[in-house]
Amino acid sequence: MPQWGVQVDWADHPGDTISHAWTESQSIVDYIVGLKANSICISFPVYVAGPNASMVSAGAATPSPARIGVLIQEARSAHLRVTVRPGLDESPGSPVGAQGVIAPADRGAWFASYQRLLVPYAQVAQQDGAASFVLGADLTSMEGDSHWESLATVLGRDFRGDISYDAAGSDYVSRHVNMPVYHLGVDAYFAVDAPDSASVSGLAASWNSWLDQKSAGPLPRVILSEVGIAAQDGAYHAPGSSKADDSTNPLVQARWYQAACTVVHDRDMAGLYVWSLDFNSNPNQSASPSASPFSFAGRPQSESALRACFSSS
Questions:
Q1: What is the pTM of this model?
Q2: What residues make up the domain containing 189?
Q3: How many helices (H) and strands (E) does the chain have?
Q4: From residue 50, how far is each of 3, 85, 104, 142 by CA, in Å?
Q5: Which domain CATH number covers 51?
Q6: Residue 185: beta bridge partners?
Q7: How many folded domains does the chain comprise?
Q8: What digits encode the pLDDT tens for the residues 41-61?
Q9: Could you give the CA distance from residue 182 to residue 21 in angstroms, rounded to a whole number?
Q10: Residues 179-217: tens digit of each pLDDT
């Protein structure tokens, strides 16, 4: 069965208690179950101090392995499939820019620190019943490095589920993503020259044209690891961006989800995860004017589209 899932973006609040983590986890899981999803991906930030830094570390917003374990346990108690995914971020004030262009001065030291950081998360993922662990996401400049093989081997000693990697969409369609994994995730943001009134079938055709740049036909080992778009006018032209105005258009978002769902079905893909649900938000409230344009929580058209998609298997 495909993984029909939600990306939960967890930037921790250091003052929150473990009891708060349980309360938030219950709310998040109940909401995801209500969408008829069968999977959840827990994304959390890890940090580098600059583009040439040789160390990866936890920051104030990095939830501890024990806190990640709370959400894994809640999700598993609801029979959801769980993926754990670290995502590289920049330390406050650092000039990193995009994680895909980092160039550590000492790659050996970079991978050693990354391994030390990830091993406790892999142990919790195994202990609490996660099914997948992602090595990293969108690390274009680091792909193909021989250290990934040894990192996957070390993590595999503690975590015996599926070890995967999430590539940037532009890299996926333009070249071979050289990573030691069986399942490859794709963070799928690509421009479509379509009006806000575009039909679902027309958008699905655009999805297929984009994927066909890499390979036509079934893609059973590929997961759309991030399917996200702002609920705004003009978003099809730049799904990875949003505008600083109030041009809210939930139908743009809903149709994008419907089109992606159609393509995953038609091409026998391994699944999709929508981006994103903020761990610290209340998903049961109507979307406020200050809500992220990428959020689907509290937007009835988007939620209805996801519910129809997720319940289709």
A1: 0.96
A2: 3-310
A3: 8, 8
A4: 35, 21, 9, 15
A5: 3.20.20.80
A6: 166, 223
A7: 1
A8: 999 999 998 889 999 999 999
A9: 32
A10: 999 999 999 999 999 999 999 999 999 999 999 999 999
